[in-house]
Specification:
It is a single chain. It contains twelve helices and no strands. The protein is mainly alpha-helical. It folds into two domains: 165 residues, no CATH class; 45 residues. It is elongated, with a radius of gyration of 23 Å.
Length: 230
C-alpha cells in the first residue's frame, strides 16, 4: 500500500470513528445562530476531515481535542460574518429604535420602568398597531464569537499547504462557482457579502452556492459506513 493510500485510509478511519464529535458542536451553534444544524454539521464535517488529515500521531494533543478545535474553528469561521447579512424590515427597525429611545426617556422621567401602555402612548401607536408590534416573532439571535477559538488553526487561505489532497480533490470536483464560494468562505474566511461583490453576484446566490457546495462535499467525503448511519 502506498503512503498516499495509507494516509487516506487513516483519515477515513478517524473521520468515521469521531464523526459523533461534530453534531454537539453544530447543535450548540445552531441554537445560537440563524443557521440550521444540518448546514453547520456539513461545515463541521469539513473541519473534522481537515483535522484528520493534519493530525500526526506523535502530537502531544489527543486527536479528539485536536479535532474539536478544528470543527469549532471551521464553524466559527463560517458563522462570524453571516449574522450581519440578516435584514429586518425598515419599519420594524424604526419601531424598535423608537421604543428603546422612549423607554430610556420615560425611565428618567418616572424613576421606574414604564408600562406597556405608557410606552404605546409615548410612541404614538394605536392599540392595534402596538399589538401587532408586540406579536412580531423574535429577531434571529446573533452569535457571540470568541476569536481565540479559531485563531491558530492554520492559514485558512492555504488549505493545501499541509492537508492531504483528499479535500482539495473533492473541491476540484465541484462545479466552478460552488468551488469558488466554498474556498472563499470556508477556507479564506470571507463574508458572503465580500464573496458576492468579488464574484459579481448577490449574497442570496452566494449563500445558495455555498450550501449546495457543502452538501456535495459532505456526500463525497463522508465514509460510506458513516453516511449510512446518518
Amino acid at each position: 500500500m502506498s503512503s498516499h493510500n495509507r494516509r487516506l485510509r487513516d483519515r477515513n478511519a478517524r473521520v468515521e470513528r469521531y464523526l459523533e464529535l461534530v453534531d454537539p458542536i453544530a447543535r450548540h451553534y445552531a441554537a445560537r445562530s440563524p443557521e440550521s444544524r444540518d448546514d453547520l454539521r456539513q461545515v463541521g464535517l469539513l473541519g473534522l476531515i481537515r483535522a484528520a488529515e493534519l493530525f500526526r500521531t506523535e502530537a502531544a494533543v489527543p486527536f479528539p481535542v485536536f479535532a474539536r478545535a478544528h470543527v469549532r474553528g471551521t464553524i466559527l469561521h463560517y458563522l462570524r460574518d453571516q449574522a450581519p447579512l440578516l435584514r429586518l424590515p425598515r419599519r420594524r427597525q424604526e419601531l424598535e429604535q423608537q421604543r428603546s429611545r422612549v423607554a430610556r426617556q420615560l425611565r428618567q422621567q418616572l424613576g421606574r420602568e414604564p408600562g406597556s401602555e405608557e410606552l404605546r402612548l409615548a410612541c404614538g401607536l394605536t392599540p392595534e398597531q402596538w399589538q401587532q408590534f408586540e406579536n412580531l416573532p423574535p429577531r434571529p439571535q446573533r452569535v457571540c464569537f470568541d476569536e481565540s477559538q479559531w485563531r491558530g488553526l492554520g492559514s485558512p487561505d492555504e488549505p493545501s499547504a499541509q492537508a492531504d489532497s483528499g479535500v482539495m480533490a473533492a473541491l476540484q470536483r465541484l462545479d466552478g462557482r460552488k468551488r469558488q464560494v466554498v474556498r472563499d468562505v470556508v477556507f479564506a474566511g470571507l463574508s458572503l457579502r465580500e464573496v458576492a461583490r468579488m464574484r459579481h453576484t448577490s449574497t442570496t446566490t452566494a449563500h445558495r452556492l455555498l450550501h449546495q457546495g457543502l452538501a456535495e462535499l459532505r456526500r463525497q467525503l463522508t465514509p460510506p459506513s458513516a453516511a449510512a448511519a446518518c
